[in-house]
Specification:
The protein is α/β, with parallel strands linked by helices. It has three helices and nine strands. Bound molecules: inosinic acid (IMP) and magnesium ion.
């Protein structure tokens, strides 16, 4: 198994910066949703670390739900635009205030497809909270109410985000130096 330091280009966002910014987002959401009981819908698997830290920084009571989508073919690092829901939420969101929690918005296809689906279920409100926004890569416009960091067009990993399904556990967001990354072997 490769040591991530063998292909880490740079640490883009440190553990400390993540902590500070997520605390701010939690405070913003808690203020905006005061008196409400929102449902945070997390997109698996990349959004998990962000969700759990965001929850701990929120003071409003809230529920959580999970969805999984697949938008990449195996080994691809770009959305195909073909988004498939592989795991759906279990409870009704009708008349609920829903916040979609994502790790990163890249082309925008994933969030666009999930928003369209959730809208058909008649939530009272629906907003998007993403940790990262690769704004310059956007192919379809999506509304973003809460954004942790806008980042450049680089492939990043750590803090929930994977490179070939590994390294999600790292506490920071790092940039992959693709010239030094040869794929996960043994
Ligand atoms: P989109 O549909 O192109 O917006 O892609 C969103 C999904 O692609 C995210 O939920 C991530 O799972 C994945 N993704 C996009 N960029 C990166 C990256 O730099 N590192 C890891 N995953 C990424
Ligand atoms: Mg994701």
């Amino acid at each position: 198994m490769l040591d991530y330091r063998e292909f880490l280009g740079e640490i883009l966002i440190s553990e400390e910066q993540l902590k500070t910014r997520i605390a701010e987002l939690g405070a913003d959401i808690s203020r905006d949703y005061a008196g409400k009981k929102p449902v945070l819908v997390c997109i698996l698997r990349g959004g998990v670390m962000f969700l759990t830290d965001l929850m701990r920084s929120m003071t409003t009571p809230h529920a959580i739900e999970f969805m999984a989508v697949s938008s990449y073919g195996a080994g691809r690092r770009q959305s195909t635009g073909q988004v498939r829901i592989t795991y759906d939420i279990n409870n009704s969101i009708a008349d609920r205030d829903v916040i979609l929690v994502e790790d990163i918005i890249d082309s925008g296809y994933t969030v666009d497809a999930v928003l369209q689906l959730l809208t058909t279920r008649q939530p009272r409100s629906l907003t998007v909270c993403t940790l990262l926004n690769k704004a310059e890569r956007r192919e379809v416009e999506v509304p973003i109410q809460y954004c942790g960091f806008t980042i450049p067009d680089k492939f990043v990993f750590g803090y929930g985000l994977d490179i070939d399904e590994y390294y999600r556990n790292l506490p920071f967001i790092g940039v992959v130096d693709l010239s030094r990354y040869k794929g996960i072997t043994e």
